[in-house]
Specification:
It is a single chain. The protein has about 400 residues and is mostly helical. The chain is about 65% helix and about 5% strand. It is built from 14 helices and 3 strands. It has a 3-stranded antiparallel sheet, covered by helices on one side. Helix 5 runs antiparallel to helix 6 and helix 12 packs across helix 13. The longest helix has about 35 residues. The chain starts with 19 loop residues before the first helix and ends with a helix.
């Protein structure tokens, strides 16, 4: 057990205090998310859960507690220990993904089996954990490969594990998340300096496969039609997107406030899930939208700054990947709610109701904050070539 010592081996003088502004931005995002769930979920919860208006709020708080435990564990854990545990995390994630195909252990919703049964009517969605596992796996792999990551023999085993994770998620009928994983993987390959010559033949193969997957399901075709022709299916397959746009417009500049002022909110089915930002917009208006975007940009800036300042390659790559997962999910979700992308199943981190999402998001935040204290003192600061401030600025 000595090789899994949970305490840092380096003197404390080699570590900075954690980025307090990064921590504050995380707490604000979580707090705003809980407030939005409180505002948006009460009517739906009261109708479907025995007049328990705070049903979703209470469950989100319980899951946040579990996420907080992971947050603190990962935050205080030595980076070397995390590196050694990555392989077990990946294997565990693959096993959990496989369990979704065993009917007695999984839950089916809307024709898809993406959730594992847990006690007290809780479920867990392994595809959320795949996001974190993939980032840490790629960070660990390229840290071991150091600067020599351009050879096919070095990259192909990594690509194999990467594609296996994507395939398992795709087989769960979670096309949106599988595409998101591909985007995160390619971004990680780019940042670590790997040559992307293998991407082009992969894309030649992936594009027709993607088209085939989209056209194989009626609801995916309807989502594309609803995006290209917003006036189609406004009372059927495109109802949720149409109602979200109406809700956003109702907020105006300053918002309608909370409580009885939210007249459009209840028109969105399951608004507490992927379309919860429409509820935030109606309550807080465009001023609230600007405030959220400013907070997200601030979080991204502090997170990417921590990644660029970290001398430990694994911590830097992992920090970059975790920040990118949270930020990219947020941007995609906002674009979907505003009608700039077709409907997807990508949740809004910190905001959307979902135990799996908030637990994994807080775990990633623990890693990001851990990486932020691995910075060398300013006078000794040396950036490594693979992640530079210029690269992160461009991204």
């Amino acid at each position: 057990m000595n090789q899994y010592d949970f305490y840092a081996h380096k003197p404390s003088s080699n570590y900075h205090k954690s980025d307090i502004w990064l921590l504050i931005s995380m707490l604000l995002l979580w707090g705003l998310g809980m407030f939005t769930i409180f505002v948006c979920s009460q009517s739906y919860a009261a109708r479907f859960f025995n007049n328990d208006a705070l049903y979703f709020v209470k469950r989100q708080l319980l899951c946040s507690g579990a996420g907080l435990i992971l947050f603190l564990t990962i935050f205080f854990m030595d980076m070397e220990t995390i590196k050694k545990l990555v392989i077990y995390l990946v294997l565990g994630t693959l096993v959990l993904c496989a369990l979704t195909f065993i009917k007695p252990l999984s839950v089916e919703k809307n024709g898809a089996r993406r959730w594992i049964k847990l006690p007290l009517r809780f479920t867990f969605q392994p595809s959320e954990l795949v996001k974190f596992s993939l980032v840490l796996y790629l960070a660990s792999y390229f840290e071991k490969m150091s600067e020599d990551v351009s050879g096919e023999r070095d990259v192909l085993p990594c690509v194999g594990v990467f594609l296996l994770m994507v395939l398992l998620v795709l087989l769960q009928r979670d096309f949106s998340t599988s595409v998101f994983l591909v985007a995160i993987g390619i971004l990680m390959f780019f940042v670590t300096g790997a040559k992307l010559k293998w991407v082009f033949p992969f894309m030649i193969f992936a594009i027709p496969v993607g088209i085939l997957v989209i056209t194989s399901e009626q609801y995916r075709i309807e989502r594309i039609i609803g995006f290209l022709k917003p006036s189609e299916g406004t009372q059927s397959f495109n109802y949720q997107a149409t109602a979200a746009k109406s809700t956003i417009s109702a907020g105006g500049i300053w918002g309608a406030g909370i409580g009885k002022g939210l007249t459009k909110l209840n028109s969105i089915p399951e608004v507490q899930a992927d379309y919860i930002f429409a509820g935030w917009t109606e309550a807080m208006g465009y001023v609230g939208v600007i405030a959220f975007i400013a907070l997200l940009v601030f979080f991204a800036w502090r997170g990417y700054k921590a990644a660029a300042s970290c001398p430990d390659r694994f911590a830097a790559y992992g920090c970059f990947g975790c920040v990118s997962v949270i930020v990219m999910q947020s941007v995609i979700n906002l674009m979907v709610v505003c009608g700039l992308l077709p409907s997807t199943g990508i949740p809004l981190p910190f905001f959307s109701v979902g135990g799996s999402s908030i637990i994994v998001t807080l775990a990633m935040c623990g890693f990001i904050l851990n990486a932020s204290r691995c910075q060398e003192k300013a006078e000794d600061f040396t950036q490594f070539d693979d992640i530079s401030v210029d690269t992160l600025t461009v991204i």
